[in-house]
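hi! just following up on the protien thing from before. the input was this:
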Amino acid sequence: MPLKAKTRKRSIRIAVTLASGLLPVLLGGVILYMQAERALKQDVQQTAEDAIRQFDLMFDNTAEAAHELLPLAGKSCSDVNLALRQQVTRRPFVRSTNLIWDDTIYCSSLFGDYHEKIPAGDYAGGRLLLMKGNLVTPDTALLMYRLGERKQGAMSYLDGYHLSNTLRMIGGNTLLVLQVGPSWLSADGQFHDDAVPEFPVAQTRLGSSRYAFGVVAGFPEGETWRYMSSEYPPLFSLLIFFGVVSGFIGHALQKRSSSPTHEMKRALEAEEFVPYFQAVVQGDSKKVSGIEVLMRWNHPKEGLVRPDLFIPFAEHSGLIVPMTRSLMQQTGALLAPLSASFDEPFHIGINITASHCLDLELVEDCRQFLAAFAPGSIHLVLELTERELIEPTAVTHQLFEQLHELGVKIAIDDFGTGHSSLGYLRQFNVDFLKIDQSFVAMIGIDTLSSHILDTIIELAVKLDLAMVAEGVETQAQSDYLTAHNVNFLQGYLFGRPMSGAEFISALSDH
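and the predicted 3d structure came back as:
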């Protein structure tokens, strides 16, 4: 086999092994990644809900202060100033309060009498305004809650420190901001009036059902992997274990499934499948009249491999056709030089299977085989094995018709043991029946088997078919078959399967 082809196959096996190992790791990683994303999403959702709940409580204090002060709007500042300061004292999150008349602050908990026109602002929901600061604390954000009724009005301020501190405590590792109208406050207490940032991981926006504000929460880039590395180390170890096991199984299955095919292809190219010949003798004279060509695997390490260990696999894998072609070519090369010395046509039996009957290539193989011998010196007999059913299709009928035109004979091998023997007699133009050795072995031992054998012989006579008895090992079996006019005998009594050189030497001696 070419080196490039071997390298390519090795690369494919390595790639498949790696894929087998990586697949569970990748799939498990994807599942864990999705699980981590879902966990982070749930975490963010819970954080946002907690923040909304806490801010609602803080705004309740601010709103209650404004509601209690609203009825005092319009009264003299000296009369109500104490009430304003009491709200600041009683409300934990309220930093200052103001009373308004006709859009003008006239009384403050901080300054007492005061006069300042309220600037127009974009109040969220008409009541909330997030500010960068005021004259007292210009660098500290404030949240203003404004309540008005005709000319009366009351305002309460919530210190931005409380807001940012809540964002830090509730947010933890989560990025969390408070949004009021177009402005927003970050956990570091900084006021922003630009667009709220987009958080790369698990971003969630949640608004309050009671006040006109919302929160935006999420995680920074890479948080999913950080979460997985901190929460899932045991699962990663388990995934790697499964990956190694899966890769090992994939490698083992490849070796199991591809190695026999690869080895048999290599053996076919190296011509390790060699012909062995077993003699077939005439029933009356016991003269050698032909052979059955048997396939043997001459393995360089294992020696001769039994055919039952590789023939079924060769049939299943589709290699039996080129293997048979090689067997015919080797048989022709061995016996063709002797064909001119044959006194009468020498029978050469070769097994074929259903795989040979799928197209007409067998016709050309037989034509080339016959062309190697002296004209009329041999009879080629194709023996139909019944391990696989040969379907009587149009191609099959055309195949057997062309084979008969070439002078090729057709035999049914192991007749009486296959499920399709009688069907072959009806569907194909058969010339020989090969009686299975299981019936021959029962001669003189089992009466029922003897009756079946007699019935097979009688059937062959009525159909005018020649007979070959397989597995003849004793003289008694030989005498019985000869007495029943069986045409040809084959078995250890007349010779074991031999290599080509051994058979040619034995044939010359005979």
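Residues 263-509 form a domain with the TIM Barrel fold (CATH 3.20.20.450).
The CA atoms of residues 266 and 480 lie 46 Å apart.
cheers
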